[in-house]
Amino acid sequence: MSARLDSPIKTPSGVVFPNRLIKAAMAEGMADDSNNPGDKHIAAYDSWGSGGWGGLLTGNVDVSTVHMGSPKNIVVKPSISQETRDAWKRWALAAQQNGTPTLVQLVHPGRQSMVGGGSRKFTEKTIAPSPIALNIGNGLLERLLRHLLFGSPREMTLQEIQEVIQQFADAAKLAYESGFAGIQIHGAHGYLLSQFLSPKSNVRTDAYGGTPAKRARIVTEVIRAVRAVVPSSFCVGIKLNSADVGGSESLEDNLEQIGLIVREEIDFIEISGGSYEKLRMAVGDNPDPRAARTAAREAFFLDYSRAVRARYPSTLLMVTGGFRTRKGMLSALETNACDLIGLGRPAAVWPKLPKEVLLNAELKDEEAKCELNMVRGNWFVRMLGVKMINLGVDTLYYVDQIHRLGMGKRTEAPPKA
């Protein structure tokens, strides 16, 4: 086995990941009644922290109590109590007691905030860069679901943009003071910062829209605000979508935005993809799930990662989505397509995957796998024909595995369909 998968890597801030395998962020939905990390988080992160991972990324932590992604998410409140601080310190200790650097993923859902997710009233609109509603499908049921779950957003004011920037900074400061190694800013999967970056959801004509650089402005200002309240030794990463490329121009716009982000002392960029409109984080770019898997093209977003690498060769890149074999991971590293391997669903099923399988020298490359079957809904769910619901069944399976991990129960890979 190549030592490359085992080799440590140091971020510009000085945080060292002891190997290249990172537990990626996943929806957890198991905060306590005060939306703090509770006993389930302690148990789950104790297990991951002793699993031989190079680093851990937490599930998404909301920065706004009004606009939350889920009512059971951890959230950073405007006024941070001692109870919250104690809970966060306990969480950080559980995750890092074996020397595994852990980063808190921070997110604002924007127009992807479901009804009941936060303190937003039923009649109160979500916020977004522009008043453009989610499009989860054109069928009658899909349009009804969109109306009931999300409604139509309203355009954010300049004051609200500044408030969101400060919310990210306040959350990062709490993570630092709690003892975490860093934070990751969520700028992907259709959440608020991703909404600003995309011309499809951002049609503003002020300082925060109209050009690729202006659409990226809120992201660069978030990074600056975070850097202003944490020391230089604190790791700050960001998660971005691969480009929804319709032509070379959209890729070029996307790479221009990455260049602006790279200048802001970012430690690494994680490349993923998808949103509630296009659930590519679950199925990748290949529309045919039966397509043959090869080591050279195992991950979903490697082609885009290579384009970023060519333009910004010194930037640390992490790719998440689709990695299932040691061979595929090694190929991605050895061809310099990325520096870090993100694993989500496999980590929910096998919390000690690196130690027991991928970094286990007693297992041959052909044996070192973490392949998973797609979880599909019953006949009624399939009959509805709503892609968001069908793929949501698969996601919820892994949320349940994380909950089992948090309760000290055995986790299981999904059965064959």
TrEMBL record:
Gene3D superfamilies: Aldolase class I (3.20.20.70). Residues 8-357 form the NADH:flavin oxidoreductase/NADH oxidase N-terminal domain. Belongs to the NADH:flavin oxidoreductase/NADH oxidase family. Keywords: Flavoprotein, FMN, Oxidoreductase. GO terms for molecular function: FMN binding; oxidoreductase activity. Pfam families: Oxidored_FMN (PF00724). This is NADH:flavin oxidoreductase/NADH oxidase. SUPFAM superfamilies: FMN-linked oxidoreductases.
